[in-house]
Amino acid sequence: MSVLVHISDTHFGTEEPPVVAAVQQLVRDEKPQAVILSGDITQRARSAQFAAARRFCDSLGVPHLLTLPGNHDIPLYNVAARLFSPYGKYMDCFGSDLEPEIELPDVLVLGVNTTRPERHKDGEVSRRQIQRVVDRLRDRRPDQLRIVVTHQPACVMRPEDEKDRLHGGEKAVVAWSGAGADLVLGGHIHLPYVSDICALAHGAPRTMYCVQAGTAVSHRVRHGTPNSLNIIRWEAPAAGAARTCRVERWDYELASGRFALAHPYDLQLGD
Fold first, then answer.
1. What is the pLDDT of residues 106-120, one digit of tens each?
2. pTM of the model
3. Which burial class, exposed, middle or buried, applies to 129 when counting CB atoms under 10 A from its CB (0-12, 13-18, 19+)?
């Protein structure tokens, strides 16, 4: 079985040290093959914040790490940097590939950079990005779990979150579901949920789930939810068996100082 940990919106510079320690302990306990960090790694894209985030990621000791920039990882107040080197400090710590991927024997994870310096906090996915993911998904192996990662949410559950939805997201989820994606992971709004995108996106041709993470370690919790993260468990089915995936939401418990399983979801995937 492959185990992946999905965290988001760490906002280093606003992190809570006990919660950071609890994430480190959970990763040690679960021993995942990969950690996926879906953006807003820092609070204000400062060098010290990126350095702290890099130390945290290194401390997890996982075989594979996929990170994406979020809107907070682009300088806000340094106008020159925002214009001429918006990803400079991010790339200094996490490398020059802004759309990385992880390919394991039974899992394919594709990162999509949905930040746009000119859009401030809004995200966007372009036609070229949509097609790149479609082409890569069509080249997949049949026994792989197929995951796409964005920062801004591909779908939202509440009307008041529609303003934060990924621009171009409707076209993206229809195209990606048709090409075989199973999960689209995201963050940005600090609201954890799992939703069948087919119920929300018109024309989505097969089952695909939107999996959102809350803020993993920051004090910037919202919507009455605690710090949270997701654990994804996948085992390729035997020939002829249904494809199923388990997604678990784990919440930080102040009393115990640990993350605990809060909501398990057993998802029936498409072919």
1. 999 999 999 999 988
2. 0.96
3. middle
